[in-house]
Design a protein that fits this description.
The structure is a single chain. The protein has 516 residues and is an alpha+beta fold. A nine-stranded antiparallel β-sheet has the order 1-3-4-10-7-6-11-12-2. A six-stranded mixed β-sheet has the order 21-24-23-22-25-26, with helices on both faces. It has a four-stranded mixed β-sheet with strand order 16-13-19-20. Strand 23, helix 12 and strand 24 form a beta-alpha-beta unit. The longest helix has 24 residues.
């Protein structure tokens, strides 16, 4: 009998470590979990505890002292297949059903949420609070930092390279930015802005940047001289040094940039490289994307300062800027340069200042026309000297970064008029998309009838010369009208149709051109 009891005890003792290990496995703790991006700075996750009974999320709510803290009952953790709803909360009222807590003097309120249990094998979730729109994408459950593929050619960039600095001084032109958000997924809401504080206009330019389905983006910005701009990606900001008339390609680690902007994770990611560069000012930009400061940029600023040490040069620049600032302020209200404006510009000492003001005037006019074209017809002109293969590039150049539909038509063409009417519901459906509609006709459309017809047609309208009409039709095989060319956001011809193919086909083509 004693032997039997001893055997049972030994068996229990042998199984005990396995049982304890099983109990340990059932509870998993993730401290300061990484994430891919977030659209809010008002909530951050400190800890996630996963068990078979619940998923506990310890978080911090940020706000002004005394503000009421309430969480919507429509809050959940979600994966591609399942949602795990909020069940309970501590230190915060769910939907105001209990007396709400207030943000303390520190501006931070520690709260705890309990969600339905997440099965093992799930590696990341999104935190979603529907009422306020708070979303934290790609919260990690099994690794500290989200995995992002970084191409080998970026990682193998040479070290200790002597920086090639741009020439200091004025050099007005358009800086071009192409880029990719590494780690981006189409489910993520990403707002991007390229911001530039002007040295002449009393304005900070904020250019909206569209992110394509593959995470790519394109932006162009007028600049008076090489300078630092800021790329905002949701709540994170990346400083970029741009050079007018030059192009840079940026590969942004979306998780690292986002986590470096987090109060809880800033110390860990602040000095990690958040973007890689190919093109203008690589060394400066790599340093800015790693530490936020740049030794190479300091060298450039010293060279720039040396250039303007001459009293005569400083005086001339100051005089030119004082002469154009009233003009620039007025252009923000009415971007058309008057004859008096052109006289002021002609008398400037520095050609680059004149060129920059003229360029901004053209850009502002174009933006106004593009905005106006969505509500009414805008008549545009093309220089009669532009011919042959130069015609289409000139037509689409101002709209680079947007999808373009080019409609070949004529006032006497019944099917053309019918297809334009059939397109109205589609244009309303795609109103939120970044699409420009350009209509081309030739001299066979009498000018007075053409202008009268445009009262019913929104978009950008060109009436080409006979030679231009024949050239562009010949170059793109336009053998009859109506005809359509679909141009993608990067300026490539995506599709062509002779005859109206139907609104459904054009919708697919335009979506592909604007998003892919």
């Amino acid at each position: 009998m004693k032997r039997i009891v001893r055997t049972i005890v030994v068996s229990i003792l042998c199984c005990l470590p396995v049982w304890l290990q099983a109990q340990h496995i059932q509870k998993r703790v993730v401290e300061h979990p990484g994430f891919i991006t977030t659209n809010t700075a008002e909530i951050e996750i400190k800890k996630i505890i996963l068990t078979d009974e619940q998923t506990q999320v310890d978080a911090v709510i940020y706000g002004k002292p005394g503000e009421i803290a309430v969480i919507s009952p429509d809050t959940y953790l979600t994966t591609e297949k399942n949602s795990f709803r909020l069940r309970e909360a501590e230190n915060i009222s769910i939907g105001g059903t209990t007396e709400p807590e207030r943000i303390p003097e520190s501006g931070k309120l520690n709260v705890t949420f309990s969600f339905a249990p997440i099965p093992r094998g799930v590696h990341e979730v999104d935190f979603v609070e529907e009422e306020t729109g708070w979303t934290i994408y790609g919260v990690q459950l099994s690794r500290q930092e989200p995995y992002v593929y970084i191409p080998n050619f970026l990682k193998s960039q040479p070290e200790n390279t002597i920086p090639e600095l741009p020439e200091p001084g004025l050099s007005a032109g358009k800086a071009v930015v192409n880029g990719y958000l590494l780690g981006y997924d189409t489910r993520m809401g990403v707002d991007m802005l390229l911001t530039y504080t002007d040295k002449l206009f009393p304005n900070t330019w904020k250019n909206n940047v569209t992110v394509r389905q593959d995470g790519s983006f394109h932006a162009e910005i007028d600049m008076l001289q090489p300078d630092t701009v800021h790329l905002s990606v949701n709540k994170a900001i990346l400083p970029i040094f741009l050079v007018p008339e030059e192009e840079v390609t940026i590969y942004v680690s979306l998780p690292r940039l986002s986590m470096a902007a987090s109060s809880l994770l800033e110390d860990k990611y602040r000095r990690k490289q958040k973007a890689w560069f190919d093109g203008a000012a690589e060394i400066i930009n790599t340093e800015l994307a790693t530490t936020g400061t740049s030794h190479a940029l300091k060298s450039y600023r010293l060279a720039e300062k040396d250039l303007t040490q001459n009293d005569a040069v400083k005086s001339a620049i100051r005089k030119d800027k004082e002469a154009v600032r009233p003009l620039c302020e007025r252009l923000l209200k009415n971007p058309i340069l008057t004859s008096a404006d052109r006289k002021v510009l002609k008398d400037l000492t520095f050609e680059d200042i004149r060129r920059y003001v003229e360029q901004k005037s053209e850009t502002l006019l174009l933006e106004a026309a593009r905005s106006e074209s969505s509500h009414e017809a805008v008549i545009a002109t093309l220089d009669d000297k532009i011919a042959g293969s130069d015609i289409l590039p000139q037509l689409i150049a101002p709209h680079r970064g947007r999808a373009i539909l080019i409609d070949f038509w004529a006032t006497w063409c019944g099917p053309c008029r019918k297809s334009i009417r059939a397109m109205k519901p589609l244009r309303q459906k795609l109103a939120s998309k970044d699409i420009v509609y350009i209509y081309l006709t030739g001299p066979s459309s009498p000018e007075n009838i053409w202008k009268e017809t445009l009262k019913e047609m929104t978009g950008v309208h060109f009436r080409l010369t006979e030679t231009q009409w024949k050239d562009v039709c010949s170059a793109y095989g336009i053998t009859g009208i109506p005809a359509y060319l679909i141009i993608s956001h990067d300026g490539k011809l995506k599709s062509k149709h002779i005859g109206f193919p139907g609104a459904d086909i054009l919708e697919k083509d335009l979506l592909r051109a604007s998003e892919e």
